[in-house]
């Protein structure tokens, strides 16, 4: 197959580029809004540009890793977030080919007390969550055969993310306050990328919505402690604080754990624990 991977300059897109070498059966076309080495420039919000790219390169499958992910800025500019996270999905889904799309735990309220299943009711509380959920609906309306993977707490050795920030702050500051009352699962982008290749290479195409994160749960505070231990940072005291103390501009989910049973059963895979993913990422960092 000829596979178009959008958002190639982001965390997940970069991990897809790295892993593609281990999956040489297919030909990959990496694209982003900003052209780079081995990355085509493509605006996924431009129907004519997307259609021309798909036709010119005989694309058989689109993997959409592109997204507007700045939760706070999305509140201030929901129009732009909606264009990228929702309207573009009608464009990608309308090409007459299969699509794999990455969504988020933010489609849920974040007030749950048990891991969310794909069939649970959604209730996004933020502009980011609303636009991502609209994207899911738009994609399934245009391409009922699409696969949607919801994930959470993504990090990698590429781009800006929580792991890199905590390493930098741990080296710069004698003390850090980190939220302890938000629970979720850190997800190594390389493991999510491998999950995408699992979907691509499965002999049977299984459309629908799935949840994928690493296994296990922790708080942002627990996550930071683990990051500092693996990074050998001993001079920074990490102090647990509440969400109210941090005073977020935009509400954050208090419980972001996703039930991965459907993905594991459908594709017959085991998923690594978040600590295992973190260790592998830290070795690369």
Description:
It contains 11 helices and 13 strands. The protein has 285 residues and is α/β, with parallel strands linked by helices. The protein is 41% helix and 18% strand. It has a single domain, classed as NAD(P)-binding Rossmann-like Domain (Rossmann fold, 3-Layer(aba) Sandwich), CATH 3.40.50. It starts with a strand and ends with a helix. It has helices at residues 11-20, 47-56, 71-76, 78-93, 127-142, 162-172, 189-201, 220-231, 243-246, 261-267, 274-284, and strands at 2-6, 27-32, 40-41, 61-64, 98-104, 147-151, 154-155, 175-179, 183-184, 187-188, 208-211, 218-219, 237-241. The model has no long low-confidence stretch (mean pLDDT 97). The protein is globular.
Characteristics of this structure?
globular; Rossmann fold; 11 helices; single chain; alpha/beta; 285 residues
Strand-helix topology:
Elements: E1 2-6, H1 11-20, E2 27-32, E3 40-41, H2 47-56, E4 61-64, H3 71-76, H4 78-93, E5 98-104, H5 127-142, E6 147-151, E7 154-155, H6 162-172, E8 175-179, E9 183-184, E10 187-188, H7 189-201, E11 208-211, E12 218-219, H8 220-231, E13 237-241, H9 243-246, H10 261-267, H11 274-284
Helix pairs in contact: 1-7, 4-5, 6-8, 8-11
């Amino acid at each position: 197959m000829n596979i178009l991977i959008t958002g190639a300059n982001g965390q997940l897109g970069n991990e897809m580029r790295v892993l593609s070498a281990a999956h040489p059966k297919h030909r990959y076309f990496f694209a982003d809004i900003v052209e780079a080495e081995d990355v085509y420039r493509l605006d996924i919000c431009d129907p004519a540009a997307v259609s021309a790219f798909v036709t010119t390169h005989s694309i058989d499958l689109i993997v959409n890793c592109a997204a507007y992910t700045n939760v706070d800025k999305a509140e201030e500019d929901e129009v732009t977030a909606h264009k990228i996270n929702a309207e573009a999905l009608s464009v990608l889904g309308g090409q007459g080919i299969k699509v794999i799309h990455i969504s988020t735990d933010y489609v849920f309220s974040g007030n749950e007390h048990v891991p969310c299943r794909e069939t649970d009711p959604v209730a996004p509380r933020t502009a980011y969550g609303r636009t991502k959920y609209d994207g899911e609906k738009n994609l399934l309306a245009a391409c009922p055969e699409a696969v949607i993977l919801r994930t959470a707490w993504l990090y990698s050795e590429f781009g800006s993310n929580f792991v890199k920030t905590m390493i930098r702050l741990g080296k710069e500051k004698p003390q850090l306050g980190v939220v302890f009352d938000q629970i979720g699962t850190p997800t190594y982008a390389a493991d999510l990328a491998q999950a995408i290749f699992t979907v691509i290479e499965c002999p049977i195409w299984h459309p629908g919505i799935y949840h994928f994160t690493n296994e296990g749960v922790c708080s942002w505070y627990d996550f930071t402690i683990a990051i500092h231990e693996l990074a050998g940072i001993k001079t920074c005291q990490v102090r647990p604080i509440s969400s109210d103390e941090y005073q977020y501009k935009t509400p954050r989910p208090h419980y972001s754990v996703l039930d991965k049973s459907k993905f594991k059963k459908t594709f017959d895979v085991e998923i690594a624990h978040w600590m295992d993913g973190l260790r592998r990422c830290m070795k690369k960092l």
